[in-house]
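Q: Sequence in, structure out?
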Amino acid sequence: MQIALLMPCYRPQHLSQIMAAVQAQIDICTKLWPQVNFRLWLIDDGASPAVADEMAQLKASVPHAHKLGLSRHFGYDAAVQAGLASIAADAYVVIDPEQATMIDTFATMIDALIVGGYQVVALPASIAICFVIVRSRFKSSAPYCKVPADMLLH
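A: Exactly. Output:
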């Protein structure tokens, strides 16, 4: 199974620290599920030259990191769409580096995808959603969605 981690970058702060936390979670997941191949995609959404340079340095130093560049700033949603349309994978993880407060939940979400068989997994980070996992090839036998209990209306 191939999982693409999509991280649109326009003006994230602390990108190196975020990448280190994501890489630590990838290392945990690789030990738990050695059959899964993780690829991290930094999507340059018209970032400033300083951010673009930092992404290039991170791409060179982080295993399995790749860069997808957009011609100018189109916005977060368009950057995610560009990643989904351009990158082939069995499942996608969208990471918002400006809402990266829940990176430590990464392994839990991958577990719901692989072990639980869910097709869509999302966890909230305040109001925004930090991670979303979507299978690219839906299987009718798999449950459709995993929603945290605190998101449900009672």
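The first helix runs from residue 15 to 32.
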